[in-house]
UniProtKB/TrEMBL annotation:
Coiled coil: none annotated. This is Alpha/beta hydrolase. InterPro entries: AB_hydrolase_3 (IPR013094), AB_hydrolase_fold (IPR029058), GDXG_lipolytic_enzyme (IPR050300). The keyword NADP does not apply. It comes from Sphingobium yanoikuyae. Residues 107-303 form the Alpha/beta hydrolase fold-3 domain. GO terms for molecular function: triacylglycerol lipase activity. Keywords: Hydrolase. Pfam families: Abhydrolase_3. SUPFAM superfamilies: alpha/beta-Hydrolases (SSF53474). The keyword Hydrolase applies. It comes from the Bacteria. Belongs to the 'GDXG' lipolytic enzyme family.
Length: 330
């Protein structure tokens, strides 16, 4: 007889917007639900992994939306931007008008479910990071499926890292990635160690997509509660992986050997679908002896409150502090 319980039964209820967050954050959440209280993004349905034509059409639509959102967040960027070939990888190099940190470099891996967010959004993101940190930012416009499934994006990430290492000392480099970009940033370091490349000064993982098997608790607890990312990304994960095993470390770096990783900054929110990814990655890094700090923001969904709420600005200040610490020690 099997006495195991299937889980915890929760009665149907409406989860209120908390009074414990800023008015701007609360307003951001309110904009993301319909009159029925259901997440507007829950109506977004991804194609099946084998419907490549549908994915191509969807990419064109979503990439335009990503570009508009990043440009709106960054405002009128001032850093100069150029696109170059970095050992075979497409890189958008953003250079501030006045370098605050000569010789330093930030490598940015954009988000987008390992499918979206390239092109103009990646360019705008690189400019945003360069303006923010006052250093050269290398935005890696990695190849994506359905045209270029795994390991194309990871190959691009390693090629771009080699390119930056040819121009900057490893102790002058910080690498950052949001969501899917966090996956590539961490997986790239696993590959870098295998190929004998030195590690950078620091790593920033913002709600990282480090477990493509989606085995964490928050994939159930925060399902439909995360108003930005209300449902799993199973279809896009399978599209990206092609026939590869989702649990292998190059696809899900949470399951890799993280020993020797650089000091790492991790961020999530209590309503983030990827909360489990982030807290599990933090514990895995700590078990591996890595100096890792975890920042979980109250009621924050995946990706934050839109970029302008006090909580978003507080997060940005924490990131700035971490980057300064990695470069200057204070």
């Amino acid at each position: 007889m099997n006495d195991s319980k299937p889980g915890v039964a929760v009665p149907q209820r409406t989860i209120p917007f908390p009074s414990s967050i800023s008015d701007a954050a609360r307003a951001a959440l309110e904009r993301l639900v319909g009159v029925d209280g259901i997440a507007l993004n829950a109506g977004f349905v991804m194609p099946s992994p084998d419907d490549h034509e549908a994915w191509r059409l969807l990419k064109m639509q979503v990439d335009d939306q990503y570009a508009a959102a990043v440009k709106a967040l960054g405002g009128q960027g001032v850093s100069a931007i150029e696109t170059l070939d970095g050992n075979g990888a497409t890189i958008h190099l953003a250079t501030p008008q006045a370098l605050a940190q000569e010789g330093r470099a930030y490598i940015d891996f954009h988000g987008g479910a390992l499918v979206f967010g390239g092109g103009e959004a990646c360019r705008a993101g690189a400019q945003l990071q360069a303006d923010q940190h006052g250093v050269k930012c290398y935005g890696v416009d990695y190849r994506t499926p359905p045209e270029h499934p795994f390991p194309a994006a990871l190959d691009d990430a390693v090629s771009a890292y080699r390119y930056v290492l040819e121009r900057h000392r490893p102790e002058d480099i910080v690498i950052g990635g949001r969501s899917a970009g966090g996956n590539l940033a961490a997986a790239m370091l696993l590959r870098a160690r295998e190929e004998g490349l030195p590690f950078p000064a620091g790593l920033i993982l913002l709600s990282p997509q480090v477990d493509l098997t989606e085995s964490g608790d928050s994939f159930e607890i925060n399902r439909l509660v995360d108003l930005v990312l209300p449902v799993r990304l199973t279809s896009s994960n399978l599209l990206y992986a092609a026939s590869a095993n989702l649990s292998q470390p190059h696809l899900s770096p949470l399951f890799g050997d993280l020993s020797g990783f650089p000091p790492t900054f991790l961020q999530s929110g209590s309503r983030d679908l990827f909360l489990s990814n982030t807290v599990r990655m933090h514990r895995a890094l700590r078990r591996a002896g890595v100096a890792a700090e975890l920042h979980v923001f109250e009621a924050m969904p995946h990706g934050g409150f839109g970029g302008t709420a006090p909580e978003d600005l507080e997060l940005q200040e924490e990131i700035n502090r971490f980057v300064r610490l990695r470069w200057t020690g204070k």
